[in-house]
Amino acid sequence: MRFGAVVATLLLAAGAVLAALGTSLWWWVAAVPIALLGLLGAYDLLQRRHSVLRNYPVIGHARFLLESIRPELQQYFIERNFDGRPFDRDTRSIVYERAKGTDAEEPYGTERDVYRPGHEFLVPSMAPRPVPDEAPRVRIGGADCTKPYDMALLNVSAMSFGSLSAQAILALNKGAAGGGFAHDTGEGGLSEYHLRHGGDIVWEIGTGYFGCRTDDGDFDPEEFADKAAHDSVKCVSLKLSQGAKPGIGGVLPGAKVNAEIARVRDVPQGKTVVSPPYHRVFSTPRELIRFIARMRELSGGKPAGFKLCVGSRSQFLAVCKAMIEEGTTPDFIIVDGAEGGTGAAPLEFADHVGTPLTEGLVTVHNALVGVGLRDRVRIGASGKIATGSDLVKRMVQGADYGNAARAMMFAVGCIQAQRCHTNTCPTGVTTQDPRRARALDVGDKSARVQRLQESTVASALQIMASMGVTDPAQLRPHMLRRRIDPYTVRSYDELYEWLSPGQLRAEPPASWAADWSAADPDRFTV
Predict the structure, then answer these.
(1) Chain centroid offset of residue 356 CA
(2) Alpha carbon distance 177, 155 (integer Å)
(3) Glutamate synthase domain location, by residue (predicted)?
(4) Domain co-membership, 147 together with 69
(5) Which of 12-28 are b and which e, b meaning 16 or more Cβ less than 10 Å from the residue's Cβ?
(6) How many CB atoms lie within 10 A of CB 33?
(7) What is the per-residue pLDDT across 40-60, written as a single tens digit (0 to 9) for each?
(8) Which of 479, 509, 503 is nearest to 491 (CA)?
(9) Pseudo-torsion of CA 155, 266, 298, 325, nearest 10°?
(10) Considering the domain boundaries, does residue 493 fall inside one?
(11) Is residue 307 located within the same domain as residue 434?
């Protein structure tokens, strides 16, 4: 029995007893709390679920009360500006300020320990350049693509309707439409909320094939082609894995599958929906590349790609070999880092499985350069991008553009309450409760999304200009430095091995030779 129900039952019992005795009002005021606490203490002594309450009746409830508000106490009263997790106070503040269009400057200098091992910094130039008047865009679309798309430097990362409320999706898409950047649907299907305001859409398909699935859960090419033809859909993406929980599927409880979500996802209403950890449409690297080509064809020539959290380097090299042998490539690859977000994931996966974004980007970029295909494939970076410096660092590490999810959630009102999986989001962002979701005003929050994207890209361009760079293509690994210990600093040019075009096919370096040899385009080696 829940604690609240126990208290209510005891209160009613005490009231009935006292009413039967015919006591006066003042006697009630004194007696009801005493009787209630006495009955509660008796219940605590008799119950068998909580040892703390059996040993410390009544007062033991203080422990559970304090535990329930621990995240709020931590966030508001204990953590410093720079040590909160997943996003610290400084980062959240700069996102909120830019979204609102207020000042985002800080006085008196940095609070961070710049001599701490792991601290990274970008290298300014003695000859800075003027900030470009217009932000550059990234052309997505290789030799096999007939409808290329010019991607913004920062876009809305994958977040599904169902995980996010309808109001949140509407605000994100309206902001994307106003600012001319892309909005990834996540794997939860293409809903009317993604299409209402006409923002550019990257339609993501996951292992459940939601929105384009047959009754038995397989991929439905006809439904996919019909929806991919929509003018707002600019790219189509196949999700292989997610940074925060790579290698596992998902479960949407039947209680959450209302009529609207069932319609969007092509699933039965009220029944639990399981997304398997694996795809039905491919089982080998070669089949993966062929399916990406099929997605491009079914979409009418729009850019097609895939998203993954990098694991085995030999497996990704096997995909590269499949590209070479099949004579076709994805138009883009989105690299999701292990530090990426999720609505819910097992703690062990979030903390201990998957490659962080830095190593993931370096691996994918170098592999494509090494096989001579980097010019045909654009790389997107996804995982804790919230500021202009985050974006510049990821482009130094090999990305062409970035995607942000949680920063965009902050823009629409998220306060990092970390209740995304409970359906009790206090700001209406990650809930399907209409009463909670109505708090999110689409008009106001969409303007904040647009301002955040514009100011973050402007910050990135300003940082690049201070480095003597006017275009992301001019960024180089030596422009980013990391402190190794209190006395040693190394550039990314020194920390990582950077391959030359075609090097893997000509003569693999010793550090890559074993993985290149093990890579098989017809199987995913373990």
Answers:
(1) 13
(2) 11
(3) 154-469
(4) no
(5) eebeeeeeeeeeeeeeb
(6) 12
(7) 888 888 888 888 888 888 888
(8) 479
(9) 80
(10) yes
(11) yes
Residue 392 and residue 294 share a domain: yes
Nearest C-alpha neighbor of 331 from the set 378, 372, 400, 285: 378
Domain boundary among 78, 98, 122: 78
- Residue 34, judged by CB atoms within 10 A of its CB (0-12, 13-18, 19+), counts as exposed
Contact 268, 334 (CB under 8 A): no
Q: What is the reported pTM?
A: 0.88
pLDDT-based confidence at 420, cuts 50/70/90?
A: confident
Q: Which position has the higher pLDDT, 419 or 314?
A: 314
pLDDT in tens, 66-90: 777 777 777 777 776 666 667 777 8
Q: Reduced to 3 DSSP states, what percent helix, strand and coil does the chain have, rounded to the nearest 5?
A: 45, 15, 45
DSSP β-ladder status, 480-485 and 120-122: antiparallel
Structure tokens, 439: 């708090």
Output b/e per residue, 453-485; b: 16+ Cβ within 10 A.
bbbbbebbbebbbbbebeebeebebebbbbbee
344 and 477 inside one domain: yes
DSSP string, 126-147: SS--PPPSS---EEE--TT-SS
pLDDT per position as a tens digit, 446-483: 999 999 999 999 999 999 999 999 999 999 999 999 99
Identify the domain containing residue 514 by its residue range: 138-518
**How is residue 520 annotated by DSSP?**
B
Element (H, E) at 494: helix 492-495
Q: Considering the domain boundaries, does residue 118 fall inside one?
A: no
* Domain shared by 17 and 156, yes or no: no
Query: What is the residue-averaged pLDDT of the chain?
Result: 89
Contacts of residue 450, defined as CB under 8 A and 6 or more positions apart, other chains included, come to 175, 176, 178, 179
Q: At what angle do helices 388-396 and 442-466 cross, to 10 degrees?
A: 50
36 found inside a domain = yes
Instruction: Please compute the mean of the pLDDT values over residues 340-354 and round it to a whole number.
Output: 76
Q: Are residues 55 and 169 in the same domain?
A: no
CATH of the domain at 301: 3.20.20.70
**Does residue 102 lie in a domain region?**
no
Residue with tokens 């996804």: 382
Q: pLDDT per residue over 115-156, tens digit each? A: 999 999 999 999 999 999 999 999 999 889 999 999 999 999
Tell me how crowded residue 286 is: count the other CB atoms within 10 A of its CB.
20
Q: What is the DSSP string of 168-231?
A: HHHHHHHHHHHHT-EEE--TT---HHHHTT--EEEEEE-TT-TTSB-TTS-B-HHHHHHHHTST
Q: Provide DSSP, 339-391.
A: T---S---HHHHHHSS--HHHHHHHHHHHHHHTT-GGG-EEEEESS--SHHHH
Give 284-300 pLDDT, tens digit per residue.
999 999 999 999 999 99
